[in-house]
Write a structure and sequence with these properties.
Helix content of chain A: 25-40%
Helix content of chain B: 25-40%
Structural class of chain A: alpha/beta
Number of strands of chain B: 7
Structural class of chain B: alpha+beta
Shape of chain A: globular
Strand content of chain B: 15-25%
Largest sheet of chain A: 5 strands, mixed
Radius of gyration of chain A: 27 Å
Largest interface: A-B, 34 and 35 residues
CATH topology of the largest domain in chain B: Ubiquitin-like (UB roll)
Largest sheet of chain B: 5 strands, mixed
CATH topology of the largest domain in chain A: Rossmann fold
Order of helices and strands of chain B: EEHEEEHHEEHH
Strand content of chain A: 5-15%
CATH architecture of the largest domain in chain B: Roll
CATH architecture of the largest domain in chain A: 3-Layer(aba) Sandwich
Number of strands of chain A: 19
Oligomer: heterodimer
Distance between the termini of chain A: 66 Å
CATH class of the largest domain in chain B: Alpha Beta
Radius of gyration of chain B: 19 Å
Distance between the termini of chain B: 51 Å
């Protein structure tokens, strides 16, 4: 039977109890159980690990802990063994018996499970892996220390200490001032100063006030918020309760998308536990504060991440932005003062209280304080979730942490900020990660998506992807956004399919001006970013498509074709076997030929041709091109 | 009652607080083009034809005048080359569903295709039916470029005695769909996929 915590002293007693419970067993194994590693069968592996520990008689010495996301998803499942300080990657079920016998029982390291640098050097400790070396894991560190389903474990790493201090040592006003002074800016994309938002709601007239967590993370390829909510839901809740205390709210909501089942489950469990322990409900920790928190599951609309649309969705209406020019800090949910912050912003709140102003402000740049979590994906060797101090350059992020582009290819651009962000060319990689610097470069911080694109990426095709995404995900209410994106999408489709004209480029710029000037909400106003930044840095690619019918990256099917170089083709029949349309002619030991009329450009032949032969080439399609013109081999 | 003073196109205008810029301008005899506006229903802010530039204390912004309320000392400009360019482009994007009343906004040879041929999605029918008649016989279906107006299955059978939206619809969509669509809507509507 759980006892409600009714004083700050009770909380500390419980914390001490939780801390000593952690120390009962000398060996601690953390197995990543975030969505990425679960997909790599980490649950089966962890089940087997527990069985094996039991079978080898180590149960009294070994604690297996299923934690949140470690971030190095590319190499999952991730496992860290303490106090040996060993990090194993890509741990499969077949490795379990050996690692229990050798590492857990004998203290030896299983070398093949360690991280190996491209030069072949094995790295033992997690923090020495290049992926982790440059990071400052202020928020994500806790993810790897605790089981997200246990409130006691959160207490054991200092959880709810910030809340207790806020409630008993600070006035609400002082909490607002602290957040203001910290320089924290909204992590959802806009970068609005969080403290100013809180102050505005706090000072707004009204008895009913609301605090909301925006966990409607919808950018393709981004999963920062999901990992936080899955891996450390109590930290978000602690931030939210502190926020509720600071602005005077009595009701909180966590708006989380239905597509994140584990995040919904873990957040709901955290809320239930918080109620049981007296950390939510009436008289929180005996302080007299009252706050109730509910989960609202979003029905899968990108535009619902927009603040007014999100609030309408909670109210039970269709999630569409409100046209009225009013601030949600005064007239938000049910027309009452409302503070809406992103998951990562809320997670920063207890960190600021715990670190103190001086240490928190030491992280980051003048205009952007603290750290930022990115999901580093695309053409990069080490992809995953990374947390870096603001001010780190994109180059450090991509090359030092990400390990650069694989396959010896050159980096072309990074795309930051999701569909409403923009492309930043390789020549500007020395830009710091900073709200204002990224805005100036024509992109934006956004919620933290960072997609690396190499020389094989066609910027026109990539732009088309983002515009099509926005055209589908716009609410369709206002004309500029709905019709503007419809036409942008048609123009870009045409350009990729070889029907583009130079006039199209100007038309796109006209439409971009309309979108950014006239749209009803931020989705429409930022929608031109991909097009604008692509035209700013890669105009030549658009011109090549429109004027020369040429795709410089050899991506757009309408402008490329596959050919077989007769001089290097030994006639091995491999490509013929995989061709779905029988477009390849020839016989054994005689060079093959592709019938362009039958070819559907699936690329199977290129994939099937052994690398040491490399007789199949993708080349530009042009009338004068009869002889194969192979691309320069890298 | 207290009033606020503001400037519209260089003219001093007095208005009651809570009035929108659009209404204040019209009361002062200054015309701002609109498409989705109708005094009977709440401002909707969708067509963006009523864009105006506002300035106060050196801060400039472009806003939809139907949704922005009057403020003391606000400086409003209802027409600039850029605003006219925006309006013409809006008309062009909606073509052929919408022809503006004022000839200067008309576009001779629209460049675009693909928008709904006879509906600008101004939503007047939906909003009037919902907010004034209280019947909710029409609704917005779909999202983004797939947004369209549809009759709520069955609800339209009660519309014969009302037909108020028929006159509101400038493009004739409602009239053309009322007889044909209303009955068959049950069959045509998209099925929900997956669990709900």
């Amino acid at each position: 039977m759980i006892k409600r915590i009714t004083t700050a002293a009770d909380l500390e007693t419980l914390r001490e109890h939780a801390r000593s419970a952690r120390k009962l067993k000398p060996i601690q194994v953390a197995v990543c159980s975030g969505t990425g590693c679960l997909a790599a069968k980490s649950k089966t592996m962890a089940d087997l690990l527990e069985e094996e520990v039991d079978r080898q008689g180590l149960t009294s010495r070994v604690e297996v802990r299923r934690t949140g996301c470690f971030g190095f998803c590319e190499q999952g499942p991730v496992m860290v063994i303490q106090p040996l300080d060993v990090c194993y990657l890509k741990v499969g079920v077949n490795d379990v018996e050996e690692l229990v016998r050798r590492t857990l029982a004998e203290g030896e390291v299983v070398e093949r499970l360690l991280f190996h640098t491209p030069e072949g050097r094995a790295v033992r400790a997690l923090n020495d892996i290049p992926f982790y070396v440059g990071q400052s894991r202020v928020l994500l560190h806790a993810n790897t220390q605790i089981t997200p389903t246990s409130l006691e474990e959160y207490l054991s790493i200092g959880g709810y200490g910030a809340l207790s201090r806020a409630l008993f040592e600070m006035a609400p006003r002082e909490v607002v001032d602290l957040i203001k002074a910290s320089g924290l800016r909204g992590r959802g994309g806009g970068g609005f100063p969080t403290g100013v938002k809180w102050e505005s709601s706090r000072n707004a007239p009204g008895d009913e006030k609301y605090v909301i967590v925006n966990a409607d993370e919808g950018d393709p390829g981004a999963y920062m918020d999901r990992s936080l909510l899955e891996g450390n839901p109590h930290a978000i809740l602690e931030g939210l309760i502190i926020g509720g205390y600071a602005v005077g709210a009595r009701q909180g909501y966590i708006y989380v998308r239905q597509e994140y089942p584990l995040a919904v489950e873990n957040a709901q469990r955290a809320i239930d536990q918080a109620y049981e322990y007296g950390l939510l409900g009436s008289d929180i920790l005996g302080s007299g504060l009252r706050l109730d928190v509910k989960i609202h599951r979003g029905a899968g609309a990108f535009v619902s991440g927009e603040s007014t649309a999100l609030m309408r969705a909670i109210e039970g209406f269709v999630g569409e932005p409100r046209p009225k020019y009013i601030h949600t800090s005064h007239h938000g949910l049910w027309n009452s003062p409302t503070v809406l912050n992103n998951v990562e912003t809320w997670a920063n709140v207890p960190v600021i209280l715990n670190l103190g102003l001086k240490r928190y402000r030491a992280l980051g740049t003048d205009g952007s304080k603290g750290t930022k979590i990115f999901s580093l994906v695309g053409k990069v060797r080490n992809s995953g979730l990374v947390e870096v101090p603001m001010g780190m350059t994109l180059r450090q992020l991509v090359e030092d942490i990400g390990g650069g582009v694989p396959g010896g290819k050159a980096i072309k651009a990074v795309q930051t900020g999701g569909p409403s962000g923009g492309f930043i060319p390789a020549s500007r990689l020395d830009l710091p990660v900073d709200f204002d610097a990224l805005d100036e470069a024509g992109s934006m911080m956004g919620s933290g998506g960072l997609i690396v694109m190499d020389e094989d990426t066609c910027i026109v095709d990539a732009t088309r992807y983002y515009v099509n995404f926005l055209a589908k995900e716009s609410c369709g209410q206002c004309v500029p956004c709905r019709e503007g994106l419809r036409q942008l999408s048609k123009i870009l489709d045409g350009m990729v399919e070889g029907r583009g004209t130079m006039q199209d480029i100007e038309t796109m710029e006209e439409i971009c001006e309309l979108l950014e000037t006239a749209s009803l909400c931020a989705l429409g106003r930022t929608a031109p970013n991909p097009v604008r930044s692509a035209l700013r840095y890669f105009r030549d690619e658009f011109e090549a498509h429109a004027r020369d019918r040429r795709c410089p990256s050899l991506v757009c099917e309408s402008m490329t074709r596959y050919v077989i170089d007769a001089s290097s083709c030994p006639g091995c029949l491999l490509c013929m076997k995989v061709c779905p349309t029988d477009a390849i002619e020839g016989e054994r030991k005689h060079p093959h030929r592709i019938d362009q009329d039958k070819c559907i450009q699936c690329g199977n032949c290129l994939a099937a041709c052994p690398p040491r032969i490399s007789a199949v080439h993708k080349v530009p399609k042009s009338p004068s091109m009869d002889a194969p013109r192979p691309r320069a081999q890298v | 009652m207290k009033t606020v003073q503001l400037t519209i196109n260089g003219r001093r205008v007095e208005a009651t607080p809570g009035t929108s810029l659009l209404v204040a301008a019209r009361e002062a005899g200054i015309e701002i083009p609109t498409l989705c506006h109708n005094d009977a229903v709440e401002p909707y802010g969708a067509c963006r034809m009523c864009l105006v530039d506002i300035e106060k204390g050196g801060r400039k912004k472009t806003v939809a005048s139907c949704c922005y309320n009057v403020e003391q000392d606000l400086n409003v400009t209802t027409s600039t080359p850029k605003l006219e360019r925006m309006r013409k482009l809006i008309v062009e994007l909606l073509s052929p569903a919408y022809t503006p009343p004022s000839p200067e906004h008309r576009v001779e040879a629209p460049r675009f295709t693909g928008a709904l041929p006879d509906c600008s999605l101004c939503g007047l029918c939906v909003r009037y039916c919902r907010d004034v008649v209280g019947r909710n016989a029409l609704y917005f279906a779909g999202r983004g470029v797939d947004r369209r107006i549809a009759f709520v299955p069955g609800a339209a059978s009660e519309c014969d005695d009302c037909r108020a939206c028929f006159d509101l619809c400038s493009s004739g969509w409602v009239v053309s769909r009322y007889t044909s669509d209303a009955a068959s809507e049950w069959e045509d509507r998209p099925r929900f996929r997956g669990a709900c």
